[in-house]
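@channel sequence for tomorrow's demo:
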Amino acid sequence: MAATVSTHVLDTAAGRPAAGIAVSLYRGDERVAHGRTDADGRIRELARDLVPGVYRLVFETATPFFRRVTLEVEIADGHHHVPLLLSPYGIASYRGS
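structure tokens (generated this afternoon):
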């Protein structure tokens, strides 16, 4: 079974989704997927048919403090949803469903 990845970005300071955020997925130095969040702050299918391993999600956030947020994640078989909660001076993430 192959792995898939989706994401969404929520602007917690504004209390709404963050549209237009560029997100890239890397395995090592190779970019394997790229997209922008939609009006709902989501990328419903950033990548599919991934082999298990370590990947980096890079969010181009451009807040006053966080210019870019990078999350290194271990991807196994199945679906992985990785949200980013974003405010001008704070971030959080978790393994979603």
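heads up for whoever presents: The chain has a mean pLDDT of 95.
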